[in-house]
């Protein structure tokens, strides 16, 4: 077995979990980062208003996503990147909620990924005054990244998991979760399909 997983991070346009406006992905194979990716997303209709609070956090504005792929357009690329990996995110409940809610908002089939929360792993691994992503990443030796840039956050999350696994002597993320007493739940997928555009004559 090997330390293989994909770290993921979403940014949202507003307080709706369905309002995904960016995603970052990092693939880890045998405990090493081998690929990163990230792109902007046009949030689903009805969830596409940008709040100033959110803009202030990640810097993404409505005009930045005008030509970005929609949630449905980019979902297959996201799914191809993840493949059969366990997905890891810092505060995974939020990111899995974005995935699930954006699929619900667009009638897309929701992938049934297994996932692990690096925040929970961090609480069992490090003795810190704050378990926010920058603080934990620093403890893992990953410094000076652009927090709230989705691709950078996913990369930081990946480095946290790599360091935590090394400290625990774990050979894969499921073993790491077992050693630390952390669950690896499965995202409840759906069999709904993306709507088919009507034929244009």
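Q: What amino acid sequence fits the structure above?
A:
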């Amino acid at each position: 077995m090997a330390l293989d997983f994909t770290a993921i991070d979403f940014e949202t346009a507003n307080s709706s979990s369905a309002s995904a406006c960016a995603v970052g992905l990092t693939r880890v194979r045998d405990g090493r980062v081998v690929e990163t990716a990230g792109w902007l997303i046009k949030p689903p209709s009805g969830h596409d208003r940008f709040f100033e609070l959110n803009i202030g956090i990640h810097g993404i504005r409505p005009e930045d996503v005008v030509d970005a792929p929609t949630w449905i357009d980019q979902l297959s690329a996201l799914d191809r990147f993840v493949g059969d990996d366990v997905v890891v995110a810092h505060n995974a409940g939020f990111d899995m909620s974005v995935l699930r809610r954006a699929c619900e908002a667009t009638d897309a089939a929701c992938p049934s990924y297994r996932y692990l929360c690096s925040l929970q792993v961090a609480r069992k691994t490090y003795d810190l005054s704050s378990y926010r992503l920058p603080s934990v990443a620093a403890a893992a030796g990953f410094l000076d990244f652009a927090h709230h840039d989705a691709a950078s956050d996913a990369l930081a999350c990946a480095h946290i998991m790599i360091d935590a696994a090394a400290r625990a002597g774990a050979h894969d993320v499921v073993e790491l979760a077992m050693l630390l007493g952390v669950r690896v739940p499965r995202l409840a997928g759906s069999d709904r399909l993306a709507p088919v555009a009507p034929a244009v004559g």
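Q: And what stands out in the fold?
A: The CA atoms of residues 170 and 176 lie 5 Å apart.
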